[in-house]
């Protein structure tokens, strides 16, 4: 018996669609507070010592958190090659801008305290701000464009051609989704700072995080209403072959369907748990910030982020990336994956290595647990 036949092809495709969501949530919940802290740095800390305290709340853990981004990129490359080709070619300039911003973060950590100059340190502080704000915005803008459809097509020999522009990505709805992303990660970063700092820094973080949580609720609701009222979705209009070949050109898709992205909620009411979790988790985080539930607030904000991301996947299924210029080129769970055998081998690897990553991450957080205080900075040998 060939082992990969133990799981049907359609089942493996759904499993990897779910795992892709898990990796995105893992990145947003872990590295998300790093991005949020970077975006908050110039505002919650006003002296050099306060800013060093803020930087040291994420300095020991950001590299481990970024593993989720690497895992996500690797999973897309191996499990969803058509999606990788479209995303990293069509969104090339946007991805480059996000990568450049992310590169500023380790450089800022490394060089900020190498000189005593206030100008030097302030410049790196703003570089760390860019390293947090820009990726958070770009990732949200990308989701906004995916919901509207991306201008790409496949030729008959399966070459991907992208016909959009960088500035075309910055349309009003996509920018709104970018602001949702920024707000929720700033909320998460502020919640993390209330857990890891004390005194005036923690109080400023609590105020900014509360505003961000409120902004997340309003912007998320606005984005959902606009998606329902004005953003025409896509529907599969031909019978799908869940075990069929990974050729997007073998189907028929209908565009311009009002409220199409909400049809899954009508057909499968249990999927409403995703947006409900997005709203409930964010509201609980807001209440937790006001009630000073430090640890629970981080959990609540993470649940809110997970719900927001899950709501995108639940509304679009089985679409992953629809095309706005060639409807049949839309990438779906059923026609954008790698082979049956590849998905099975990757699943075995995921079952082995993801628990190891979770165990290592848990151990790191246990070792680094506790608040960062000013005496840790002034008397610590390894402080940033």
Write structural notes for this entry:
The protein is mostly helical and 384 residues long. Helix content is 68%, strand content 5%. The chain has a two-stranded antiparallel sheet with strand order 1-2. Strands 3-4 form a two-stranded antiparallel sheet. Helix 1 runs antiparallel to helix 2, helix 1 packs antiparallel against helix 4 and helix 6 packs antiparallel against helix 7. The protein is globular. It starts with 8 loop residues before the first helix and ends in a 5-residue tail after the last helix. The mean pLDDT is 90.
What number is the mean pLDDT?
90
What does the main sheet amount to?
2 strands, antiparallel
Secondary-structure content class: mainly alpha
Strand content: 5-15%
Roughly what percent helix? 55-70%
Compute the separation of the termini in Å.
55 Å
Number of strands: 6
Q: What gross morphology would you assign? A: globular
Order of neighbouring strands in the sheet with most strands:
1-2
Low-confidence stretches: none
């Amino acid at each position: 018996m060939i082992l990969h036949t133990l799981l049907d092809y359609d089942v493996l495709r759904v499993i990897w669609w779910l795992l892709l969501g898990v990796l995105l949530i893992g990145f947003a919940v872990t590295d998300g507070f790093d991005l949020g802290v970077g975006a908050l740095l110039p505002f919650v800390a006003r002296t050099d010592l306060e800013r060093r305290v803020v930087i040291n709340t994420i300095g020991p853990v950001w590299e481990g958190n970024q593993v989720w981004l690497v895992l996500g990129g690797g999973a897309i490359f191996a499990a969803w090659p058509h999606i990788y080709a479209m995303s990293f070619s069509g969104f090339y300039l946007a991805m480059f801008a996000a990568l450049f911003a992310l590169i500023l973060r380790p450089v800022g950590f490394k060089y900020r305290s190498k000189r005593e100059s206030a100008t030097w340190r302030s410049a790196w502080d703003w570089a760390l701000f860019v390293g947090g704000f820009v990726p958070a915005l770009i990732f949200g803008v990308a989701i906004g464009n995916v919901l509207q459809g991306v201008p790409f097509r496949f030729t008959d020999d399966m070459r991907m051609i992208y016909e959009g522009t960088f500035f075309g990505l910055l349309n009003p709805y996509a920018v709104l989704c970018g602001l949702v992303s920024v707000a929720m990660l700033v909320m998460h970063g502020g919640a993390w700072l209330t857990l890891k700092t004390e005194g005036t820094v923690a109080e400023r973080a609590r105020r900014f995080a509360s505003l961000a949580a409120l902004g997340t609720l309003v912007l998320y609701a606005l984005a959902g209403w606009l998606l329902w009222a004005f953003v025409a979705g896509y529907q599969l209009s031909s019978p799908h072959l869940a075990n069929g070949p990974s050729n997007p050109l073998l189907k028929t898709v209908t565009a311009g369907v009002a409220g199409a992205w909400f049809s899954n909620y009508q057909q499968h009411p249990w999927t409403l748990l995703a947006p409900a979790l997005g709203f409930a988790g964010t509201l609980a985080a807001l209440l937790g910030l006001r009630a000073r539930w430090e640890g629970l607030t981080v959990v609540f904000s993470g649940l809110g982020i997970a719900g927001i991301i899950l709501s995108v996947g639940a509304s679009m299924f089985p679409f992953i990336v629809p095309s706005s210029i060639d409807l049949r080129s839309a990438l779906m769970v059923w026609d954008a994956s790698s082979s049956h055998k590849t998905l099975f081998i990757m699943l075995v690897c995921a079952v082995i290595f993801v628990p190891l990553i979770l165990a290592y991450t848990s151990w790191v957080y246990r070792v680094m647990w506790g608040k960062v205080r000013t005496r840790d900075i002034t008397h610590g040998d390894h402080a940033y």
